[in-house]
Each structure stands twice: as structure tokens, then as C-alpha cells.
Specification:
mainly beta; 7-stranded antiparallel beta sheet; elongated; 6-stranded antiparallel beta sheet; Phosphorylase Kinase, domain 1; Transferase(Phosphotransferase), domain 1; Neuraminidase
Amino acid sequence: MALVSGTKLGPYEIQRPLGAGGMGEVYRAHDSRLGREVALKILPESFARDQDRLHRFEQEARTVAALSHPNILAIHDVGQHNGSPFLVSELLEGEALRGVLDRGALSQRKAIEYGVQIAQGLAAAHENGIVHRDLKPENLFLTKDGRAKILDFGLAKLAQTSTEGKASDGVTLTSAHTAAGTVMGTASYMAPEQVRGEPTDPRTDIFAFGAVLFEMLSGRRAFRRDTPAETMTAVLKEEPAELADPTHPISPPLDRIMRRCLEKSPEQRFQSAKDLSFALSALSGSDSGGVSGMTQVPRGVAWPRWGLAALVLVAVTAGTWFLARRQAETPNLRFAIPVPGEVRHLAISPDGVMLAFVSFEESSGQPMLYVQRVGSTSATLLPGTEGATYPFWSPDHNYVAFFANGTLQKIAISGGTPQMLAKVTSARGGSWGKKNVIVYAPLASGVLWRVNADGSSASALTVNLAEKHEQSHRWPVFLPDGDHFLFWAGNFTNANDDQVSGIYITSLDAKAKKLVMLTHSNVGYSTDSLFYVDEKRQLISVSFSGSKEATTGEPSVISDNVGFQPSTYWGAFTVAGNGILIYDPNTQTASSLLTWYDRNGKEVGHLGETGVLANPSISPSGDRVTVDITDLQTKNVDVWIESLKGGGNARFTFDPAEEAIGTWSRDGKTIAFRSVSNRATLMLKPASGLQRERPVFGMADLRGDIFPNSWTPDDKQILCTINRDVGQNQGPGSKLVLLPVSGGDPVPFVATKGAETNGQISSDGKWVAYASNESGQWEIYVTTFPDAAGKWQVSRGGGTEPRWRADGKEIFYIGPKGMLTAVQVAGEGTFATGTLTPLFPLHGRAPISSTDIFSYDVSIDGTRFLVNRYLRPDHVVPLTIALHATAGQQE
């Protein structure tokens, strides 16, 4: 009996009918509790007469409601009205796919676009044990904003046998149960096993999907005949017609994918909707006859020359592979995938569908975060992510977390403003577990921290697991349970006899850790396999037993070519939970060159050779420069001295420990630097190199780090940045301290609510310029010296890395979007600043070294700038994706 407007079913008030069918009547209704419009479906009265079926209906509704997938109709509530059950769902604006197809075939681009979405919805349901069993255009809805929604999930097996005797091909043939001998489904879309009354599984839905895809591409049904019996015979014995309409050509790879779905034997179809989704995603943007006419790339994203060719390779290779695939085969197939420009850091979503990566935005030259559907031709820039590094995904793949500007942030891939979760200094990776806890490394030298995904309860996590020989805990990766995780722990000596640095496993209670394997690399986990980069810089996989917390079998080489940063122990690869692996085969280590610029940003020369460089520092006399250089063979970092008078360069430090951040004394006779062996230590050494270095102060253990910034005018103290002791549980950060050269404990210099770094003492010794994030973002401040009594903010809208002109009359810093900025200052009696003058952008800045503290220095007269300019490769090889990367791996 139809319901009239105004009828109330609990909190739901009927507004008007929307439609009716064999599974009941659908109405538009108003939910008075939440103030929203919903769709309400009244199911047939026959349901109420079978309590078993009614119970199963409620179970199915609860299960489907828990899916919460953008391509599945959201279920809000279930209830009963006059003995008839009803279902409350989201209200959709648009029309069923049937109505669209009644007007004719879709374009190939649209068919692929909708097909990918439908396959993703099926994959989500299948993972939760739900098979649709009646997928057809009537149960697929296209919203006004172009989203495909699957309707009536789980209701097919609840329908009664039709008794109307319709001869139409659209008859739904079902019984109350799914026992052997049952015929269930809609004739044109039933799989052969359904026709025979055999058990069904997710591959049954894949057959129906193939029939829907055929109809989207051709405008006609794949197996329709005059009667249901003849239609079912065609399903069992006949192949679908060829799609040979010259006015509507179909690319061969897409045709192969469609026919793979329609294989008579389930074993010969796609074995999962995820594989199907991926295959279609690889064709995204294809047009008739092949792959041409890419989808529009967002502004600022420039496609490299190889993009089109790579996409063709994707389509042809993917289609060929899936045509030949059988259930018993798990080939390790790999092919190139296009992304716009050079990729710095990358992370694949847990379901293997989306890729997040850091690349340079063309107009600003700043590293920013992009997301791209795997196989698509377009990437989406996420605004507000300037300076992004090391992205990682939320478990529901709706958010990407990343580090930028001294903070851990998250951003929805649908857009919006990034949300700050925690403060960091020199972050080294993070992972987001299923318990909505993020584990991250806020410091290059330090322990792992944890924070809830809403930004609450940040605290040190692995501090009790830190041992004296360890300088860093970094690169965490959660295991599927959301409790246990892998991480790297060890030291930076790179010694051949190192038997402690490697991948460890622990859990969120952090009571103990266990060594899994020795390596100086980040780690990836997927389908009981670990991935890492070995000493030969090969990408390796090895079987892993989570229950035993140990590797098993022999390692296998995935690729001889993979990008790797030796000073951070980071390999350019990422792996999803379903075994999809993406890696960057560009083996050229990200490098830089010391380059001279004038105040207009014109390049006027360079110094030394290309390499992995960091922290240029010009001597007080202006004739020499200290710089950190990483040896690509030993991975060791040392301080070198470059001559500005054509005298070449010379290595200054020689210990196997990481030695970096050379800082000149005011008289130019001594260089302070940081050394990390068993602990971070501040060292002094005569600039002549004729005497050995001596320690001045050493951190007690892994609980902190220390970096020299600037000497006092009398050379009796050094202003240093010291990482806060994480044991205080006040948040990881950095503080400025004064350290006596003669020895002794450091003395705090300034006290703010935030972190401070890059302290620079003026030549007259009256002022200190420094960077602090006390306001929530990094800004440049000036305070008095030596008492830090007053304070003035110099920068506006952000600032880092202050440097003084030698006469103290000008401060330089890096402002928003990497703009090198100058400001005139007056320091007679009181402190005052003049107008901010943007000079030129430092394009291409991105930390590639573990010791990146300063990226430039200023000549004595302030007319030239020595910039550590990061170099982009002349030729960028596309990323490589490997499916079933561990196939054939030895157990």
C-alpha cells in the first residue's frame, strides 16, 4: 500500500514517492532527528512473514552500513512499518544507470570512469564478505557530481521467486536461500554458476560487472535473447558479440579487460575486484582506438615528454597481462606509470589505488604534495602543502599525513586546509595504524613518538627501547593489526662490523623490541613480505612471518635500480597491502651544487663539485667555506673546506661517525662541528687541521642532539641548537643554548612556548636573530644579547634561516614560498627594522641530507649569496609499478 505525504515512520516523514520495483517502494523522506533528507525503501510484506529472512535482512543491512564507501549507497537505519521492514539510506540526486543506457552507449572515457568506481565499491564489499549477486544497471546510480553508487547490496539473496511469469529478459530469478540448485539473479547479468544454481563468490559479481561494462560500451546487452531461458543458455554457451561499431571504436586493452570479466569459468576471470579496478585505472583517460586525449592536468602540473608513451605502455601491457592471467598464476609484472615531473617522496594508499607524492610546483619551485589515481593521467595538487616531505596514508585512504614547516600535518585528499597534528624538527617518516594512532620520527636523531589522528596526546613512544649505541629511531611502518610496527634503529657509522643497525619490531606498548634484520634502509611491508634497499642499492624483498617476528627464506632482488638517499637511509619505494609496489628507478642521488647569486637572483658562479651537500658556511675572512659532503660509497658524512681563492678543497673530518655543520669561530682559527658516533657531540678543531679535534659537550644518549649555530664575538661561547630531551614529554623540539668553549653544561638562552633554531649572533655581539615557531609557524625574531631581554619579530608570513650581513645592518632569511628576503635593521640604542625586500626565490629547496640546517650563506658585503642549489635531473625516468612483486619469492 502506497504511503501518502506526511506519513511518519518514527522520525522519518514521507514527502513524496521516488519509484517502485520488485524489491519495494522508495520514498523521499525527512529525518527529523538529524535534519536531513533521506531515501526510505519499504520492502514487501512477505518479508515480515519469514522471521528468518527478516533477521538475515537486518544482518545484511548492518554489514552494508558498516562499509562506508563512497561508491556504495550509505545505509542509515532499518525499521518496520505495519509489519513491513524498511530501509533508510542516503538520498541521491541523479539517475540510475539504466536510464542513461536507455539513451545509448557511453563514451569510452565515461565507461572507464564509472567502471573504476563500481569496481572499487565491489572490492570494498568483497573484502567484508558481501557479494551483490544482482549487479545490473538498475542497481547502479550515477549522481549529478559524476559518482557511481552501487544500490541494494545484500538484498538480492533475500528476494522471493518471481511468480509474475514475465518473459522480459529483466526478470529476477531467485529463491529464498542460496543452496545448490537455486537460480538467482537477473538473466542478462547472471554468471554461468548462478544459472546452474552453484555457489557464488566475488567472481560472480565480476561477471555481472563485465556484462554492465559491455552494455555501457555498446548500448546493448551482452546476452539478451527473446526469453529468459534463451538468455540463460546464451550466458552458458555463447560469447558476447564483437564491439565493432566504427562510429564508436573501443580500444583493444579495454575490450580484453571486459572479456576477461565475462569468462565462463570463474578461475579465468579477474580474481578480485581490486585487480579489476587497477586494470581499468591503468586505462584512465584513454580514448577510442588507443590512448590519446589525456584528461586535463591541473594548473601547474607539466607532463614530462615520456608521459604519453608511458601511458600507452601501461594500457597495452596491462591489457595483455590480464588477458593471459589465470588464478594459479601470480606473475610479477611491472610497467611504467606517468607522474608529472620529478618525484621526491612517495606513498601508495593501503588499497593500492592512490599515489601521494612530493614534487616541485612549477611556478614557485616549492616541494608540494600531489595525489593521483594509479594509472591516471592527471595529478591533483593539494594547496597549503608547501615544503611537504615523507607522506603517508590514513588506513581508510581518505587522508594523507606529511611533514612540512616543522609540523606533522594531515589533509583530506578531497581538499581543504591541512590540519597540524604535532610539532617536529627534522622528521624521518611516519605511519598511521588502524587504531587511529600515528607513529612518527620527529627528529633525525631521536626516538619515535605517537599521536592520535586528531592531534591529541602526543608523547614519546620508544624512549625506553633506545640503547646507547643507537642514534636514531625512524621510518616506522604499521603491520595490519594496527598495534605492531616495524622501524629502523641504529647508528650512522656505516661500519662493516655494525651488528645493531637494522629493522626492529615492537608494538604500541613499546615494552620490548626485536631485531628483524640488519640493514641501513627504510622498510616496506605487504602480504607477509618485507622490502628494503641493500648495501648494493638493490630493492630487495624477503618473506616475513608476523607471528614469528622474523624473516623466512632467501631475499629476492626486485630491482637493481632504485633511488636511495644514503645520508638519510631512505629508499624511494612504497608498497600497498595487496602487494602493489611502486618504486623510483632514478638511481641518480639527489644532489646539489654551491652556486653564487647576486641580489637580483642572477647566477654568477659556482663553487666545488656536484654532490650530496649541506650547510655552507663562509669564513669570517671570506676566503673559505665549510660544507658537509656525503660519500656515496661509504654513506659517510664529513666536513670539507672549499677555497674561494681557487685553491680547491680538502676534507676536514675523518672519523667514521657522521660529522657535519662546520661553524667558524670569529677569528677564523677554529671550526666547531657536530659528530655523531655513539651520541651527538659538539667538537672543536683548528681550521688549519694541524691538531686533532676535541669534544666540548656530548649528549647523554639518544634523547637529544646538538648543532653549532654561531660563536660569540670573544669566541668563548657557542650558540647552539639543542634538541629537547624527549623524556620530558613536552613535545619534541629544539632550544637555543649557550655552550662554554672551555667545557661545561649548556645554558638556556631564550625561553619561548615553541621551538627555536638557527641562532645567529650579530658581529657587534648585541643581537641574536633566530627562527621560532612559537606563533604556530616559523618566523624570524631578534632578541638582545647576552641577556635575551627584548624581542622583535622581523619576518611576516613565515621565515627560516636568518643570516646577518657582516656589518650587522641587514638580516636575510627565507620567507614564504622559498623567497630569500632582506630587511634593513638599525641597532643603535634600540632595535628597528626597515622595509622587507624580496630578493629571489630559492627554487628546488628540499632536504636530502640528514644534516640540512642551513641552505645558504651571505658574502661579507651582502651582495652575493652562496646557495646550496639542489639540481633536478636532466632526464626523469618514470616510476615503475610492480604487481605481485613477491611472486616466485623463495619461502
